[in-house]
Amino acid sequence: MIQSLKHLQLHRPRPEVAQVWLNRPEVRNAFNDAMIAELTHVFGALAQEPALRVVVLAGHGAAFCAGADLNWMRRMAGYSYQDNLTDAAALAHMLHVMDTLPVPMVARVHGDVYAGGTGLVAVCDMVVAAQSVQFCLSEAKLGLCPATISPYVIRAMGVSAARRYMVSAERFGAPQAHAMGLVHELCPAPQLDEAVDSLVQTLLANGPQAMRQCKDLVRAVAGQPIGEGLRAETVRRIAEIRASEEGQEGVQAFLQKRRPNWLLPGDAA
Description:
47% of the residues lie in helices and 15% in strands. A 6-stranded mixed β-sheet has the order 1-2-3-4-6-9, sandwiched between helices. It folds into 2 domains: 8-203, 2-enoyl-CoA Hydratase, Chain A, domain 1, CATH 3.90.226.10; 207-255, no CATH class. β1 and β2 (17-22) form a beta hairpin. It starts with 7 loop residues before the first strand and ends in a 14-residue tail after the last helix. The protein has 11 helices and 9 strands. The model has no long low-confidence stretch (mean pLDDT 95). The protein has 269 residues and is of the alpha/beta class.
């Protein structure tokens, strides 16, 4: 059960879709330990919903996420090494919980993204950004490094780009982020909601369990040597999903030229 939220808003336009809004516009959606705890709790709860199909991550106010909250940083300045270990572990756990969400997650990036906010973008499966958005991995300017977000950012934007922008702490625009793979779709700011809604509708047309299996498949296969063990694993996976109730329904619907039973009235096929 999701408790009352102070730093987030959870909106359910329909039972299969969840919108999680970062809701600290007065500090450009910068996160602190309380917001990290809420994100961990919300995404942990959403992961347990069997009927959930899509999550949209968005932000209120001028920025998508400006990284760490200044008041939180002031408190961290006095932390011991052990305190810093505990604090960083909470952020790392939050990112892991979000990254392993079993259903597709779409980022609606309307405003600038700094530092740890880039990690929030990088754990999403699909990123739609306004063309005017600016990104910055700004930690080096403060004598720090983006350690906890680095596995997800490097995976999303590639080693070469990550080395440049982590070391230089330069700002880069959404078109550059798109070229390196951190952003998947660009659009003018007034068309952002339309682009996100269109992608959500595309996802809702797919088999719910198939999408979950696709996410898990990528995690299992990425980076593995193509040997006998991996081939056997992929054979097992396709055999299981072909024999599943959803797999049988999807194939029969295609052959019979009808809508599969997971489509609700009004959903586009």
